[in-house]
Amino acid sequence: DIQVTQSPSSVSASVGDRVTITCRASQNINSGLAWYRQKPGKAPELLIYSASSLQSGVSSRFAGSGSGTDFTLAISSLQPEDFAIYYCQQTISFPWTFGQGTKVDIK
Amino acid sequence: QLHLQESGPGLVKPSDTLSLTCVVSGESLNKNSFLWGWIRQPPGKGLEWLANIYYSGSSYYNPSLRSRLTISMDTSKNQFSLKLTSMTAADTATYYCARVPVTSSWYFDSWGQGTLVTVS
What we know:
Helix content of chain B: under 10%
Shape of chain B: globular
Strand content of chain A: over 45%
Order of helices and strands of chain B: EEEEEEEEEEE
Number of helices of chain A: 0
Helix content of chain A: under 10%
Shape of chain A: globular
Number of helices of chain B: 0
Oligomer: heterodimer
Largest sheet of chain B: 7 strands, mixed
Radius of gyration of chain A: 13 Å
Order of helices and strands of chain A: EEEEEEEEEEE
Low-confidence stretches of chain B: none
């Protein structure tokens, strides 16, 4: 199985801050990576697919980059609704696997 | 407007078989444009992919649960289902159904609200 490891596991930030989250795959996954945001008590929602493509309807303050084994999700200016847990997921091969999550909370 | 709605028993006993259904509205399951899948999340923990199914009936399973899982589809009712046998406390989780567009890169682009299943 391909393991995906996120860092940090948590980050404290303020509204308006820039935040970056990284995801590292245990082997080359090309651009087969997606990012999700999960607000408390809600289902995850897709932010980024194919490592860097912004899902329709998602704010342009979210940006994904990377390929191969190293990936980054950047949030350019945190909004109140962005205090949530973020997950990456590899879909290059089965079983699809998720990172352990990064919690973004209020400083 | 696409909508996915999970339904399940809420509470199951150890060793029971869990049966979940996802009713889809706003999109036909009988198309080659999408896969349909299940994901679960134990309370306070991360996400685990369980299984996917294609309109043709082709299915894909997480090997860690393969012996206990069955995914199926009923296109006449526009719904798909998941069965998980031999339930234990470790299977307590919120179970989500979701859609996967069939493109060069796969991802879950639309999710149901989830249904909490407790094993006790």
